[in-house]
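For this section, I looked closely at the sequence of one protein beside the tokens encoding its backbone, which the following lines show:
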Amino acid sequence: MTIITATTMAVLLKPMITAHRLLLFQTQKHTSIIAKQQKQHGSLLVASSVHQSDNYCKNLVDEFDPNIPIEKALTPPSSWYTDPSFFDFELHRVFYKGWQAVGYTEQIKNPHDFFTGRLGNVEFLVCRDDDGKIHAFHNVCRHHASLVASGNGQKSCFVCPYHGWTYGLDGALLKATRITGIQNFDVNEFGLKPLNVATWGPFVLINLDKEILPQQEADNTVGSEWLGSCSEFLGANGVDSSLSYLCRRVYDIECNWKVFCDNYLDGGYHVPYAHKGLASGLKLNSYSTKTYEKVSIQSCDGGSTESEDDIDRLGSKALYAFIYPNFMINRYGPWMDTNLVLPLGPRKCQVIFDYFIEAHLKDDKDFIERSLVDSERVQIEDIVLCEGVQRGLETPAYCSGRYAPTVENAMHHFHQLLHHVLKE
């Protein structure tokens, strides 16, 4: 039997230990080199990933052909409504460009009034200053990115709840706390970042991609840019600032934002099947649709012959205006309500209903309550429909559908507009 001493064992193991140390050193060196290269080229890697994602989404966009006539066309693929990458892709191309409705002028009626909101990943703040001028800003403190304000109300200035940095209603930084010793700091460069803001009729709009315009210039151009040639038509058909604001209802719905829009744009197709109460007050055989540049108008005669003693919620004619990409104005009888559809994720959206009424009825509590109950019933019915559609879109059984050519031309128009901006 051979006896291996400690000395002999050390001699035998030395080459193995040396090889292991060399391998460990080479591995650490290689890992260090990779880390260094990733750090040096991190921005290139991110850019490459974004580029690949964009190419993937552009291929999804091409699965819909907007030039095929509605009689032969397929609807957009289900991936437009379910794919997380596509959702992020369209946020930047659909919602971060052009004028977007975000509120109504009653919310900022007086100096110091303000309201906040979120559009995609953009937090915004709208307010009216002491001189009556309207401002809009990114609602983000320039110190460490805390939200500066929340909700709505009145403030003489905005104080960040995190570290107390204070901003004027014009966005200027008024106070930066505990910055003794800070260098290369220009207070004029650290105000709230502004956004373009404008009003049309009773509505407040912001624009994320324009150079900041003077208020008067923005107000003068927003109508033509947002509504196109439909601007005068809406103003002449009761969509104006003479109505009294009543209340707001908010619904969180488990569906892609476009599912809600599609449901709105089917030309009354679903009304006799899903809204029997509403259908009884409309003459559905009179339903008609007209499309403009970025707007579609659906209209329908009501069954009402109103008298002073019998006021009907729907009146003698109902008008439903869809303003690309996500805003709806419904004008019927003495009422107007608006639907703002906010994307929250690939399969989730929030719909904000704001209700307005002709001034002579604003104190008629019984009529208002009955009307709101009727409206609520319709919204619940639509939520059930939309959530069912979303679940169907996520199954392997469905890819694309077809249009009903005589009624769904407003929906087809919406999809054509989407394709146009997604291809830019």
Notes: Residues 6-61 form the longest helix (56 residues).
